[in-house]
Amino acid sequence: MHREDPPRRPRRRTIVVALGVVLLLAAGAWWLLSREEVVVRGGIADYYESAGVRDQLGEPEANERCGLAGGGCLQEFEHGTVYWAPGLETVHVAAGDILDHYTDAAGPDGDYGYPVTPVIHDDPTADFEYLRTHNPRSGEWFWLISAGGEDVVPVDASDAIGARWEADREELGAPTPETAEGERCTGEDLCRQSFRDADLIWSPATGTHAISGAFRARYEDSMGAPLGEERVNADGVTVQEFSRPAEGTYEVMTWTARDGAASHTVRGGLATLYAASGRSGGELGVPVSGESSGLRDGGVRQRFAHGDAYWTPRTGSAAVTSPTALRAWRAQDSEDGIWGYPTSSKRPLDGGWAQDFEGGTIEVSGDGYSRFVPDAELAEDPGAVLDGVAAQYDLGPARGGVEQLTGGVRYREFEGGVAVLGSSEGALAMSDAVFETWRTKSDVTGAPRMAKDDDGRLSTRFAKGTLAHFPERGDMVLRVSSRLGAGDALVIGDSQLGEGDHQGSWVAQAIRDNGYTPYYEAHGGIGVATDGSRIGFGSYYQGVVDRKWILPSGDPELIYIQGSGNDSYGTSSREIEDKLTQTIRTLKETYPQSRIVVTGLISKQDASSRNKVSDVLEKVAQDQGVTFVPLEGKITEWNSGSYLKDGLHFRAPDGHDYMAGKYAPYLERFLRR
């Protein structure tokens, strides 16, 4: 039998497979031996293992790379890069536009230096995120800001603009494309960077301030650096000031709802004056016009919210800011009038102030009264001075020429009043009625001192009080320096109010006990129709109806007319009745809001002559519809006869005190009606 041998396996295939296995094993061993281990070590490792950082960064993608500026290192991770340097805090920068921008700018080796914060996006409503860095070599700080689709924009300026932006980033918003390369500077004087809602401007002299809204739209670098933020001043005007120190100028922007935005430049001597006065927050306020040149003697003028400022080569810089002086000066053609240019600032004077002009000095009181004192040269032309007063107070055309009173006082009458000029009085004005009162009662008024247009009423201050004419109050001249009102009592009386010491009298005490403050027109020896004062003080009728007295202005709550025994000595009942009637009617015209009280004569029982006068007074009071307080027989009823010193008047102080205790509650009964 023939037997076949089994087939043989191909030896070549086996060898190839075996060889392949050997080569694969060798290559794997080589790869394992040649692969560098990625580790996180040192300060970066400490930071990486701190709370939450590993989760933010993911796994390392390469080992640290050292040799950076200042001996620093960095290490890249899946979601960002960690930066470490000796003496600095270790920080990571998350992957994104900011990291790409920072890396492209050479990272720590570039201008930005090392990051000092992670990428910050602490407000989910904000439309930007940022990274803060510091370059120890240059000392500069940077804020790298990303607003999504826009470029990453650096903010620096020796950290000033960046620090301000970081503090107010929500209000300012992200940088705008106008400053995609960062801030723009003009030399070393001014740097500017634009953000969504404002521009930040920095200068070494003024620091960093924002410009926004209408001011931002008008601003130009040539205006200089802002001196502060915009603000609303006391006049309700929004203001922001800018300065160019090298040129000595100020640019002032203003905004109001009515006028919108405006800007005016203040320069030269006026700029010096503006600064010295406190700029826009000071005496001048904001400028409301540009500079006007070509004035007399080479002068220039600029108008401000609170006055006019002038400069001339001869007089220098000065401003007129008082409303009183400004109205008077402008009414007389300002610098072209008789006053001329201001030559000084205001200076204190007797509780008010004074200011010098080329033609003289204006003096103004603390409550707005004024007079003009012409210099010696101008005083030689009284007509011009008096016409100037007429223009100041709008007295209208003249009714005649310049006249002179005894003592050298000159005056001129105009349709609306009288202008007066005296060597001690200066130049001032008064109404016709006040002028006549002064001429006939100068012993009562004293010399004129100053005048004031008080809402259309011309008041004149004299040495002994301030007077004004009230056509609507019985055509009276009243003492406006003694204005009465609620709680006040005008008390008209005789010696029952005491001789000199009215306050201690039984009448005055009773009035005060009823809640009133008395103002007196009283003197011994006088009555309704009688003046036995021996000094011409005047009866009640003469004082009120004949205007012998100068009564107080206002509306006293009470007018108290004390019945007087002086009318019981030979004065007829008819005369008493007529004169009291006219007196009350005049008082009603003068004080239409006041309550009038008339009393009878204080008397003992059965004092027929005094009681007869009281009966007349009571009748008039009833006819005129005013309160009457009878005092007939009260000395007897109140057992006060022992306190009389002469049968008619009470001793001071005990008699007056006793009577006041009796009279006050009695008077109250009538005042309550």
UniProtKB/TrEMBL annotation:
All residue ranges annotated as the SGNH hydrolase-type esterase domain in the record: 498-651
Transmembrane segments: 12-33
Taxonomic placement: Bacteria, Bacillati, Actinomycetota, Actinomycetes, Micrococcales
UniProt cross-references to InterPro entries, sorted A to Z: LGFP, SGNH_hydro, SGNH_hydro_sf
Keywords (A to Z) from UniProt: Membrane, Transmembrane, Transmembrane helix
Taxonomy, superkingdom: Bacteria
Protein name: GDSL-type esterase/lipase family protein
One protein family per Pfam: Lipase_GDSL_2
Gene3D superfamilies attached to this UniProt entry: SGNH hydrolase
